[in-house]
Amino acid sequence: MTTVAVLGGGRIGEALLGGLVAAGYDAGSLLVVERDTARADDLTQRLGVTVTDTADAAARADVLVVAVKPQDVQGALGAVDGGRDRLVVSLAAGIPTSALEGWLPPGTPVVRVMPNTPMLVGRAMCVLSPGAHADDAALDAAENLLRSVGRTVRVPEAQQDVATALSGSGPAYLFLVAEAMIEAGVALGLPRPTATELVAATVDGAGGLLTAPGNHPSLLREAVTSPGGTTAQALRVLEAHGLRAAFADAVEACRDRSQALGATFGG
Ligand SMILES: NC(=O)C1=CN([C@@H]2O[C@H](COP(=O)(O)OP(=O)(O)OC[C@H]3O[C@@H](n4cnc5c(N)ncnc54)[C@H](O)[C@@H]3O)[C@@H](O)[C@H]2O)C=CC1
Ligand SMILES: O=C(O)[C@@H]1CCC=N1
């Protein structure tokens, strides 16, 4: 079985490891490098993965996954030498493949990926772009690994910053919307557990409809909106408060931040 080493066992590193274990991946083939020793021990206990250091991970891994914060990536890759062929899959926001290639042994195949946290429940959206040395086989290998924890899409690297602003950060927007709906229900007198259950089930069910083949958000919204009914009144208020404009500005600000991060690293 392919040996996968994850550099950084934080939120997204754990989501990948946990997702792979849940998908039936052999924990014996999963390594993690995590500088917070308490967290590393916790990952071993809960997931059965092996904790090691970067040099050992690089020596053993067929796929080396980078899951540290963007500013920690160059340091984390310092101990990766050229002694072994391996694929590097970077989950770090903003960092271009050209920068990663410059920090790695010459010729290392790199695939840049923007994942998201629904990976924890096997429902990630992972957006992949190949670097200069990643051929179709490398891209296939990265995609096969990530398909164990959700969906994948390939895009040219120039589209990664916008992808980050939609699917990478997107779960946070939807959680904020959910929070706002729950608080609105509580303000109108619903018990908090009831409001939370109603909203969570509604987001989940709406997501199921949205991802069903042939569906479109406009048609789905129309199907809920009865003429002269309740939904039309709510939508009128949301439009009057500038919901669309708020999302357009938010997604642009997120895209800009991803670009700025990339520019720091020569992108
Ligand atoms: N959290 C999210 O929703 C998403 C995060 N990402 C990307 O994933 C990466 C990780 O993000 P999070 O998991 O949220 O961060 P995090 O801070 O939860 O995890 C990073 C982990 O790496 C460890 N670490 C840092 N330097 C290390 C080193 N040299 N060796 C070993 N361990 C080291 C830290 O102790 C920490 O546990 C970032 O680059 C981020 O841009 C991408 C998409 C979504
Ligand atoms: O907020 C961030 O920078 C990371 C990247 C995408 C989601 N979380």
Strand content: 5-15%
Low-confidence stretches: none
Report, as a whole number of angstroms, the end-to-end distance.
35 Å
Structural class: alpha/beta
Look up the CATH topology of the largest domain. Rossmann fold
In the CATH hierarchy, the architecture of the largest domain is 3-Layer(aba) Sandwich
What profile does the largest beta sheet have?
A: 8 strands, mixed
Query: What is the C-alpha radius of gyration, as a whole number of Å?
Result: 21 Å
What's the CATH class label of the largest domain?
Alpha Beta
* Quaternary organisation of the protein chains: single chain
> What is the assigned CATH homologous superfamily of the largest domain?
NAD(P)-binding Rossmann-like Domain
Average pLDDT metric: 96
Count up the helices.
12
**Number of DSSP strands?**
8
Helix content percent band: 40-55%
Q: What is the domain total for the residues?
A: 2
**Bound heterogens, unique:** 1,4-dihydronicotinamide adenine dinucleotide, (2S)-3,4-dihydro-2H-pyrrole-2-carboxylic acid
**Which sequence of SSEs, written as H and E, runs from N to C?**
EHEHEHEHEHEEHEHHHHHH
GO molecular function: pyrroline-5-carboxylate reductase activity
GO cellular component, one term: cytoplasm
InterPro entries: 6-PGluconate_DH-like_C_sf (IPR008927), NAD(P)-bd_dom_sf (IPR036291), P5C_Rdtase_cat_N (IPR028939), P5CR-like_CS (IPR053790), P5CR_dimer (IPR029036), Pyrroline-COOH_reductase (IPR000304)
EC number: 1.5.1.2
